[in-house]
Fold Fringe-like glycosyltransferase domain-containing protein.
Amino acid sequence: MLPINSSLGNKVASLVIFMSCLLISVAVGDLKEGGSPVREDDRRVQEKALYPNEIVFVIQSQQNSFHMKRAEECRAKLLEQAADLKQNPPVVLLLHSLSDNEGDWSILPLLPYFSASFGKNSSWMVFLEEETNVKVAKLLQMLERFDREKEWFLGKPLYDKESTIIHHYAFADNPSVFKYPDFAAAWALSIPLVNRLAKKVRDEPLKSDFTIDLKHEIALYIWAEGEGPRLTAVPELCTELDGSPRAQHCVTTLNTYLPLCGEPVKKEDIFVAVKTCKKFHDERVPVVKRTWEKYAALLEYYSDYTDPSIPSIDLGVPNTERGHCGKTFAILERFVSEAVPQTDWLLIVDDDTLISLPRLQALLRCYQPSEPVCLGERYGYGLGQGGYSYITGGGGMVFSRSAVMKLLASGCKCYSNDAPDDMVLGMCLNALALPVTHSPLFHQARPEDYSTDFLAHQVPISFHKHWNIDPVAVFNKWLAEDSNNEDTNSNRPNRDTREEL
């Protein structure tokens, strides 16, 4: 055996020690938090950065001057942030401008277009509302956690505590098991999922049925009875007010809970029409009088029977058990006649509608009565096959004078007195190419029919139905104004509601 030089031996020993330490370091680095090994595909995802131009933002905008302006402001903020990052900008689309198809707001009919246009060069599609703020840099970091080559459906989850009619009583045995996204917090689809869904839409035409709660119905379509992904909850997608201390960790926040555009319109500018009938004079009309009637300057009750004690007005249209198209069109005719004072706005409600007129006054300041505005909770019929949108009547239908004049001048009429008035009006508006403007603050159903987290970031304007509730108590909890809670000015949900939630 040859003798080993002591100097060389020391160098070899040092090298062995160094290599041992290096191997230990690599082994430790291959462990995730908690001790599980990092898979090679996970390492690849972690190392691949996401850039703004890999994202397509879709602002769920509407064809109305107020909403178009808000959407443009939202787009400008996104592009400004991308410019600050000194990187290629993302694509930012305004939903209302993508085509002339009335059903585009339901998003699913547009999936083939999204796939064809962005399916090869993008990684994510992020959908948001016009009042949603996005911190672009933080959004990129958040999305980097998810493998963009897999199917992902991300959002802030909502769920139902009880099965509800607005969701067709889905998951009746355990409704809380199914989660759907809160659109206000933004939601995202990975491009592989977009591409697969686009093929499904092309191969299997969408059904021509009702679109009632789009966020729930989109989640159902994506889930596809378990064949597709469920919604993945992302805590950074939030609905806190922008600047709130609770929003520090958030990627998304909200500008407002109730849009405020200046001083509320005067109550003398709103004519209120309440649809009723003789059999409900003693049951429902007293609730209106005990709750919100006092906030109206101009209000009339329209019935099939003249009752001076209310007073109610018989329009000469017999009461019907189903739709009330004849009565509603008679109200439109009366609104433009000399029989009532001339006002900018017409509100038509059912006798079991609960509504905050002061909040409506605040919201209407955002709209121009010289434009044909048709405002309320938007539903759709047959949107996958063309179809049309309409304002669901129970939550309240608001029309500008311009809209009423155009409707009546068109000659559009009821095909029968008992036709559904809101749907017939929707068909008329569609034929005239007049947009239906949606506000989530109007509600066709009762508070318990909506997710608690959904109502938590609202200043609601209306609810509907007296079924299995105390309507006066519901009004006082959700819609009443008091000296300690100026909802229309505070821009926050009702104090008692926040505490309850």
